[in-house]
């Protein structure tokens, strides 16, 4: 692939720190081979003293949609071991969660689609495999919103009791 094509694909997919390789596809999907480039630091202690500890199995992960076709990333990740904390990890955690079949960008797009359509319509487009992941994230976000609302209410109640105590005093 020519350098300008490679750079254009990187920009379109929003993959700044990744090396884009081959691109192939058919009527329903496009697959882009991706590798991580640049310096890696330990995800646990932040140390730069690492050595290679093998390769992960290549994974096909849904990244986005383009012209009605799914765009998958074939992610080739390396495993690393830290010389300081002795822990192992795989690169690319900022792109995809552990054991997920969706990139973080795809998860966000799905949530945006759920604002306009119902869950069964989005599920048909994604396929049944992603149903549990999306529902879990939706529930997690609802729980976070509920928790924030409860904290606000508690704060308001606390301020009211303080004001009442000052008035009685």
Can you list the strand order of the major beta sheet? Answer: 1-2-5-4
Shape: flat
- The low-confidence parts are none
Rounded to an integer in angstroms, the radius of gyration calculated over CA atoms is 22 Å
Describe this structure in words.
- The chain has helices spanning 3-13, 104-116, 119-126, 131-168, and strands spanning 18-25, 29-36, 50-55, 59-66, 69-76, 78-82, 88-90.
- It is flat.
- The protein is built from 4 helices and 7 strands.
- The strands form 2 sheets. It has a 4-stranded mixed beta sheet. A 3-stranded antiparallel beta sheet has the order 3-6-7, with no helix packed on it.
- The mean pLDDT is 81.
- It is an alpha+beta fold.
Map the helices and strands.
Blueprint: H1 3-13, E1 18-25, E2 29-36, E3 50-55, E4 59-66, E5 69-76, E6 78-82, E7 88-90, H2 104-116, H3 119-126, H4 131-168
Parallel strand pairs: 2-5
Antiparallel strand pairs: 1-2, 3-6, 4-5, 6-7
Describe, in short, the structure shown.
This protein is α+β, with helices and mostly antiparallel strands. The protein is built from 4 helices and 7 strands, in the order αβββββββααα.
Features:
169 residues, alpha+beta, 4-stranded mixed β-sheet, 3-stranded antiparallel β-sheet, 4 helices, 7 strands, 41% helix, flat
